[in-house]
């Protein structure tokens, strides 16, 4: 592997009061490095002034000082590229939007070293990955749980990665989800404003707790299947781990098929109200019935607003049809 580039600048009085990121961008002879990328390099500690690290891109140029910028070499990522079919909704030189199927893990982790979305993106994008943090890899700026389906975006360039990460951090992303839940909330449309933190006993779970991080979910019931459940639409102001699953469970309406948050509890609470058909549906549905249906954001490079919508996958459509049938059969049996 080749060594990173070290570029040195000696500032003259001509640049008095210039921002350091602007100055560096003006001096670079490599046209492939944008001012946004220079900002990221500075924030990551790759710029020094007379030997001292400068990590504020807005700081003023110091005259007659020696600046050194390190441009990391793009190296191979640890995950191996793998040919995995992807449902690509949109792609350009900076980002890619996919419709993730249920069962696909987003990122390699202990126990799941390959067969992930990252492995698939490495294969599909190949040389178009221009390097994120000095590594030729896709920039994962948000995640969906393994068994949650729906729309996701990943960055292909450093500039897009920085821009998308910032949009998620300041909650300037339009995210909508659809879920099938047990029962029907007393309020058809409401906001759940309840902080979420790690469960004090089960460290794999999250829970509503006073000292948790702020979490806000807006929901609206769009269809009911009495007395079994409902189809519910959710939009997020925040993006906490398992947020929708935890919030809906906290109001007594956990997601059908969610074995981590209340599945057994909901079955135990409703045995006298459930027909055999509904019980069969529950037991055969093996994942949380949650789908990321819409994702909208301002493109971090082109600045155009993009909005992507994906329909319910086949398994959720079958679940909805089965619930309809169970409600109808229950009505017939009550005559």
Describe what this molecule looks like in 3D.
The chain has 335 residues and is an alpha+beta fold. The protein contains 8 helices and 18 strands. It has helices at residues 20-27, 35-43, 117-125, 158-169, 243-250, 263-269, 276-284, 314-333; strands at residues 5-10, 47-49, 52-53, 66-71, 75-76, 88-91, 95-100, 135-136, 139-140, 149-155, 174-182, 189-193, 196-198, 206-208, 216-225, 229-236, 290-298, 305-309. The longest helix is centred in the C-terminal third of the chain and has 20 residues, at 314-333. The radius of gyration is 25 Å and the shape is elongated. The mean pLDDT is 86.
Pick out its properties.
335 residues; Pseudouridine synthase; 4-stranded antiparallel β-sheet; 24% helix; Structural Genomics Hypothetical 15.5 Kd Protein In mrcA-pckA Intergenic Region, Chain A; 3 domains; alpha+beta; 10-stranded mixed β-sheet
């Amino acid at each position: 592997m080749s060594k990173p580039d070290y570029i040195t600048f000696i500032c003259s009085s001509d640049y008095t009061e210039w921002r350091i990121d602007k100055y560096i961008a003006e001096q670079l002879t490599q046209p492939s490095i944008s001012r946004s990328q220079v900002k990221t390099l500075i924030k990551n500690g790759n710029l020094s002034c007379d030997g001292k690290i400068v990590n504020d891109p807005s700081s003023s140029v110091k005259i007659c000082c020696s600046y050194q910028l390190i441009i990391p070499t793009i190296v191979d990522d640890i995950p191996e590229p793998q040919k995995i079919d992807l449902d690509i909704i949109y792609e350009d030189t900076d980002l890619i939007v996919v419709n993730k199927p249920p069962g696909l893990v987003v990122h390699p982790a202990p126990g799941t070293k390959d067969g992930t979305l990252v492995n698939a993106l490495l294969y599909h994008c190949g040389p178009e990955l221009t390097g994120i943090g000095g590594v030729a890899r896709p920039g994962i700026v948000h995640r969906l749980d393994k068994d949650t389906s729906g729309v996701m975006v990943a960055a292909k360039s450093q500039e897009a990665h920085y821009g998308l990460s910032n949009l998620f951090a300041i909650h300037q992303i339009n995210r909508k989800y659809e879920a099938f839940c047990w029962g029907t909330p007393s309020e058809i449309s409401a906001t759940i404003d309840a902080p979420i933190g790690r469960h004090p006993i089960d460290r794999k779970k999250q829970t509503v707790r006073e000292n948790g991080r702020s979490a806000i979910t807006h929901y609206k019931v769009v269809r009911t299947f009495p007395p079994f459940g409902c189809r519910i639409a959710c939009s997020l102001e925040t993006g906490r781990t398992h947020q929708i699953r935890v919030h809906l469970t906290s109001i007594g309406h956990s997601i059908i098929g969610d074995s981590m948050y209340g599945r057994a509890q909901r079955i135990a609470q409703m045995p006298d109200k459930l027909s055999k058909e509904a019980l069969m549906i529950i037991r055969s549905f093996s994942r949380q019935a949650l789908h990321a249906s819409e994702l909208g954001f301002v493109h971090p490079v082109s600045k155009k607003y993009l909005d992507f919508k994906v329909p319910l996958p086949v398994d959720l459509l079958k679940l909805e049809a089965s619930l309809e049938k169970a409600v109808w059969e229950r009505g017939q049996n009550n005559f």
